[in-house]
Write a structure and sequence with these properties.
Elements (H helix, E strand, L loop, with lengths): L1 H16 L9 H31 L4 H20 L4 H10 L5 H29 L8 H28 L4 H11 L4 H13 L4 H16 L1 H8 L5 H8 L1
Helix pairs in contact: 1-8, 2-3, 3-4, 6-7, 6-9, 7-10, 8-9
């Protein structure tokens, strides 16, 4: 699902930036096709060669890691030059990564420390770009509440109703809806892309961040109140 969301965001971004390239709009689909072919027939064989080297050496050496990171940077730079967000380049490279779990796991282990450093910085940057002061007046706050309500109805209500229609008890269906109602890192990434591209205004960006925080924070008290496991504990005790 996060991959689909990122892909959809990139398609929207291409459509938004296309008018600015009106002198050669016919090149946009050709560039995208060329990019995909480059990933399939250029980046994928290279990554497979690196994966075979990793298997032969039995560990992820610094030179292998440097080559993988160089490919990520090059792919991000290329997509940025094509008028697509740099994130899409890294996404495509990950999509063509060999399916060998050991190679992927070794890269993930090596980058864990970097993620622990950069992820808080990303959330801090998102917070700095969010300004509640932009929501001036009752109308804007009403719009913000409406965004939160629509978001809750879409994910919480949709998931809970679907679970109930499949035969799940209401309490457990509502708990599932509460879990589905949370927003994560992917949402903030997509919002940042939209803000950078000018698709959404800073005020709307702030509203969407508030919505993401509100729907995420409401999950724990909602689950504590529902406590679907409470229905199973007495039954388990009677069986014992």
């Amino acid at each position: 699902m996060p991959r689909l969301s990122i892909l959809l965001a990139q398609i929207v971004l291409v459509l938004v930036r296309a008018p600015g390239r009106a002198s050669r709009p016919w090149l946009i689909p050709l560039e995208l096709v060329a990019l995909v072919l480059l990933m399939l027939f250029g980046a994928r064989p290279t990554l497979r060669a690196l994966e075979r080297t990793h298997r032969r050496r039995g560990r992820l050496t610094p030179d292998l890691l440097a080559l993988v990171l160089s490919l990520v940077v090059a792919s991000a730079w290329l997509t940025d030059r094509l008028g697509i967000h740099a994130l899409f380049g890294a996404f495509l490279l990950g999509a063509v990564m060999p399916k060998d779990g050991r190679f992927r796991h070794a890269i993930g282990e090596r980058l864990d420390g970097t993620i622990a450093l950069l992820l808080p910085l990303f959330f801090a940057l998102t917070g700095l770009r969010t300004s509640v002061r932009l929501l001036s007046g009752a109308v804007m706050w009403l719009d913000c509440l409406l965004i939160v309500a629509v978001a809750v109805a879409g994910k919480f209500g949709g998931a809970a109703l679907s679970a109930r229609l499949t035969g799940m008890p209401w309490r457990e269906a509502l708990a599932l809806g509460g879990l589905m109602n949370t927003r994560g890192l992917t949402e903030l990434v997509i919002l940042g892309i939209g803000l950078d591209a000018g698709v959404i205004s800073p005020a709307l960006f702030s509203m969407m961040v508030i919505m993401a925080l509100a729907t995420t924070f409401m999950t724990t008290p909602l689950l504590d109140w529902l406590d679907p496991e409470r229905l199973r504990r007495p039954a388990a005790g009677r069986r014992g």
